[in-house]
Structure formats: structure tokens, C-alpha cells
């Protein structure tokens, strides 16, 4: 059983107010893999996470997670949303991280020793022990992403949904965070789905791609998805994929819309 995909979507369609966002999409996600979702702004990447989190219903088709329908408060999932408003939030990192746990438990408070145990564990997993006593307002962008990652780990999830955790990070912090996330897949047997607009920093690490554009979805290995044929079908337009083997940079050029980097 453990080789079954942890997510299986079969011809799903998603819309808001009768406006179709994704149509007839099928894909699966295998356990213990690093997956990335790519696609232009507004293509439905975050919406797909909402479906997996049980926050948005599909119109048709079938989607199963761990063999079940998506449901709210699923403890098997850790989630970092695309953006958060921290203004006016004056919390220590430790308290902020534990919100993730207390949230799951609907306000149930943990004993001090259990809290400390969880905090140490998750901060260790993100190499962020030194952040424990800081205030959430004092953190740099990179440190904040580490704290978000730690918070998403408090319920010991099997699957992490990370919505653009790399945006606003410089290359050094981006690589640091990516290595941490890749380590969670390798050492902690987690499955990761990460949304990003820039594939290049992650190209060598990632196992599978889910590409959404124009209401369509393609998924598979890098070679299966990131080629002119598949991307031209997605964009309904001629797409050139140029790979620079030396720098590992991938440039995707779309006719009509100018150059587009992923
Ligand atoms: N609650 C909502 N009600 C109505 N339309 C919505 C809602 N949420 C998102 N949309 C629309 O659905 C489409 C997909 O949105 P989504 O946030 O999933 O895109 P995305 O791929 O994550 O984009 P980005 O890269 O900008 O984050 C967009 O056109 C958006 O305006
Ligand atoms: Mg989004």
C-alpha cells in the first residue's frame, strides 16, 4: 500500500462563480518525493492547495489524499500560505510556532515540557534553534520562512504544501531553505509540493513538475513536462525551451508574450 500515490486527482475541474480555473486535470503525487507547481499568475496554483486542504470543493472528477476525500484540518498536511499579515502580531517565535499545534487542537494547550519538546524538534529540523526566543517582528525574510516551515512541521505531517516560500529571498537564503526542504524529504520521509515562479534554483533537486496554464495541467518528470511540445499545448502558443547545460538555467520563451523565465 505504501507505494500508492498519496495524492490522486482524476479529471478534476475547479471554478469560482462559474468561471473555470482548471479543467479536467489529472495528476498524482508519489510518497516521499519533491514536487514543484509552476504556472503564470492566476493559473490556479494556490487554488489547487485550497482543494487539497479541503477549503475549496471541486466541480467534477475525483481527488483522493491518503486514500480519502480532502478534508479541513487534516493533520497529515503541513501548510505555508502564500502570504500572511503579521502586522500587529507581537509574539515570540516559540509562541508563534505553537499556534500551529494549538490551532490543530482547537485551543487545547500543551504542557510546558511537551511544548518544549515539539519546539526543539521542529526548530532543529529547520536549523533555527537560535530563533526560539526572538520576536516574530525581528526576523529577516529568510528567518521568517524558517519559522513558517517550523510551524508547518509541528503536527508531524506527512505532506508539506509550501506556497511560494522562496519569494523575496536572496540566492543564498533561497538555497539554504531549499536544502532544508530537500533534507526533510530525504531524512524525514516527507512529501513536499512547493509552488514557485522560478524553477532554476530548484531544478536539480526536484523530482516532479506540475505545470498549470490556461486551465490545463501537465505533470511528470522535468523532461516529460518542460519541453516545447507539452508547454506549447498548455499555452496554446509556440513555446521554446532552452536549457543551458553549463549554468543549468532554463529559459522558456513564449510567442506573443515575450520571454518568460521559469
Ligand atoms: N476566493 C476567490 N473567489 C473568486 N476568484 C478567486 C478566488 N481565489 C482566487 N480566485 C481567482 O482564481 C484564479 C486562480 O487564483 P490562484 O490564487 O489559485 O492563482 P495562482 O496560480 O496561485 O496565482 P499567483 O501566482 O499570482 O499566486 C485567479 O484568477 C483568481 O483571481
Ligand atoms: Mg498563488
The CATH class is Alpha Beta
Question: Which band does the percent of strand residues land in?
Answer: 25-35%
For the sheet with most strands, the description reads: 6 strands, mixed
Give the structural class.
alpha/beta
User: For this structure, what is the CATH homologous superfamily?
Assistant: P-loop containing nucleotide triphosphate hydrolases
**Cα Rg:** 19 Å
What percent of the residues sit in helical stretches (DSSP H or I)?
25-40%
Low-confidence segments: none
Mean pLDDT across residues:
90
**Whole-number total of structural domains:** 1
Q: What is the string of helix and strand elements?
A: EEEHEEHHHEHEEEHHEEE
Task: Report how far apart the termini are.
Answer: 35 Å
Strand arrangement, largest sheet? 5-6-7-3-8-9
Number of beta-strand segments = 12
Quaternary form: single chain
Ligand set: adenosine-5'-triphosphate, magnesium ion
Provide the CATH architecture: 3-Layer(aba) Sandwich
Number of helices: 7
Quick one: overall form?
A: globular
The CATH topology comes to Rossmann fold
